[in-house]
Amino acid sequence: NNQTADTCEKWRIIGLFNNITKSDGTKENLVKIFRDDSIGEFSWDSSDSSVNYGDGVNDWTDADLMKLLNPGYDSLSVGGSLYYNAKSGTCYVDSYNDTTSCDFTSTGLKNDTTRNAIEEVVWNLGSTSDYESASNGLASHWYGYERGTTVYTGRPTAWTGKIGLIYLSDYGYATSGGTTKDRAACLAKEFYNWHLSDFSDCKGNDYLYNSSNVQWTLVPHSAFASGVFYVSTDGSVGSSLANVTYVVRPAIFLKSNITVKSGTGSEND
Question: For residues 28 and 2, what is the distance between their CA atoms, to the nearest angstrom?
Answer without folding.
Answer: 33
